[in-house]
# Entry
Amino acid sequence: MSGTAAMPAALRSPGVGFEQPFAMLQACHERVLRTLDLLARLRAHVHQHGADTDARHAARDVLRYFDIAAPLHHEDEERHVFPLLRARASPQVQALVQRLQDDHAAMEADWAAARAPLQALADGRGAGHFTAEDASAFDRFAQRYAAHIAAEEDIAYPAARALLPPAALASMGREMAARRGAPPPS
# Structure
């Protein structure tokens, strides 16, 4: 499957550092979208070629990202962005935050449904194709994520950035780095 070999490098840390926490959050969104694109390409590949070695590798890449990196990203938002907005933003933004938090719970359930056929494929237990139910789970997961990212980048992140003084941004970046075992920002 073309492009699969390059994906593991893309799943590593984004090109920005923790000294810019909102840029880091947006870089994570870019990685989410790239990984969702890989999932779409994987679906097409499996439809055309079945569950071959390339498909199993791509499934592992998708699993790795959404099992490891995405939950850390959601935790960043739950710790640093959402509480601030719930406490200090306009009522409209506070309502959006509730929706975004509900999205996190729904995406967890969506991921559980999408994860099962990917894990079967990665383990070599797949039937060599995805079912209509699998396709529906993949679509639901991808669509919810896309809408979620748009709301965060268009409304939530700018509102939070405007409320945070530089010292709080630095503290946010240090905490994000520490939870990942990364060196603190300079």
Remarks:
- The domain at 18-178 is CATH 1.20.120.520 (Four Helix Bundle (Hemerythrin (Met), subunit A)).
- Confidence is low (pLDDT under 50) at residues 2-14.
